[in-house]
Structure formats: structure tokens, C-alpha cells
Amino acid sequence: MENWDVKRFREKVYEPDRDFEALAQELWTYQRQHNPLVEAFASRLDATGPVSLPIRFFKEFSLQSGDSWEPRQIFTSSGTTGQLPSRHLVKDPAAYRENVLRGFHHFFPKKKYKVLALLPSYLERDSSSLVQMVRYWMEEFGLPGSGFYLYNFEALNQALGEAMDAGEDILLIGVAFALLDFAEQFPSQLPPDTLVMETGGMKGRKEELVRTALHQRLKAGLGVSRIVSEYGMTEMMSQAYTMEHGRFLPAPSLKIWISDLHLDRLRLPFGHTGRLHFVDLANIDSCAFVATDDLGRLYEDGSFEVMGRIDAAELRGCNLMYI
User: How far apart are CA 245 and CA 243, in angstroms?
Assistant: First the structure.
């Protein structure tokens, strides 16, 4: 694959009739040939086809596929105090921009939005992929006055009021705990077509809420009929979004599968709960095949649920508990 056409591969990912599995095999072959860590891991498992690398490898190694290159951007995770953050080395930020825009417009209309982002825990870091994604949204389809907010709820409330007075379409995206705080302090009646999007982020900040309860509170506090969730990671180039049935739908560049908690290469049938794996065809220059530390459940239509983090207690328990 010395003359592999990366640009053509990226285009094929979004073609309506593309064969995802064939593209995944093509990318696996490329990454195995051009990423020594992928080759070493696959060889140790005696793998003939794609296998998932543990997500912790993004903490322990610099994952780069292809000839030697210097990253133009490095995304890092927030991590837990005392733990190493994940580091995702990005060769081409323009490719990330193109992919997140294509993924967004796969689900949401192409139009101008007043993009208002309440991302305090992410905005306080310079290397958040989520913040970069929202910046690209603002640059591509953000109306004048779009912007980020830390904890200045009064300014955000004023911006929402001005957007409503101007009849502008609104995209309000925020960390779950911050959106909930805002909705409680500034209860609103936003226009029914307002796109309100939460990105998770409740742990350690407020009482733990399941997503349905969180969305009920946000809908009541903001006066909207629908809340969208976004699923993404530092280690991913693609995203997924919840739609009407409340489950996540992956962008065309992303596919999810579920494994047994103890046997990572044992795929579970639809409807069973286990470890969530992703294949991210947009992540050409790093690693596209990753086993996460999330519990998930996959459905026949390709949608999936995220049911929490896998911890040591769950791994010690009988995996039949999750079926």
C-alpha cells in the first residue's frame, strides 16, 4: 500500500453505497503495515483481521500511522487527578474539521445557527477536541455573536434572549452539569426548534443522573421538547448523536461493536451488554480500532447505548449479569 490514496479513501467513507467492512479492512491493512505498535499487537494475538487496541494505549504510547510526521495538533483528555491523560496526535487538523462537519450535517440541517457553548471544564484546557469541534462549527455555520461561556450564566442568558429577539436559529451545546445549573438558575422558554445538545459530564459535580432524568430536567428548565446528546472521545475523530429513540447513531465514518467483558475478541449479539469498541474510519493517521472502557449495548439498526464505565468490580463479576 505504498501509493495508498488517503484523499480518495476519505471520500469513499461518505459515499452512500460504501462498504464499511471493506473500508475497515483496507484501513486495518494500512495501519498494520505503517504502525509498528498495531503490527506488534496484532502479531501477538496472531490476528488475521482487525482487532481493537486498548484505549489506554493512547496514554502509554504515541500512536502514529504512516511515514514519520510531526503532529500539528495534540488532543488530550481531562483525565483523573494523578492519572496520565490520553494523547491523540493529529497529523492534519483540516481532516478533523472536514469530518466533524460532515458528521454533524449528516444528522442536522445545513443552516446558520447562533452557536452558544457552555463548556467550562473543557474550555479551561487548550487541548480539548470537543472545544476544537465547536470552534469549527462556529467558523463554518455560526452566526455573529456565537461564542463560548465559562460560568457567566447571565451573559449566556442575555445572548439567548438576543438570538430569540432576532429570530435566529439556536444551537446551545454544553456540559451536562453546567447546562443543568444554567436551567435551574435561568429557567427559559426557548423556541421549540432550538437545538440543545449535552455532551455528558456529571461525574463528581452533581448527583448522578441517568440520561433520561437529565433530559427531563433540561427540557423542563429550558422549555424545549428535545435534548440531543453527543458522544465523542479524545481518541476519536468521529462522533455519534442521539436522535428520536434516545439511542446514539454514529456518523457514517464510525461503527460500534460490543464484546464480552472478559474476552475482547468475542462479539456479543445485538441487545447484549458488554465492552464498547469503535472503528473510526476517519482516524487514518493514528489508530482506528479501539476497545473502550465503556459499557454499551448495540442494536440491529446500528444505534447503541452507553451504559457507564467498566470498573474492576464489574470485571470481577460474572458477565452473565450484563446479558
Answer: 6
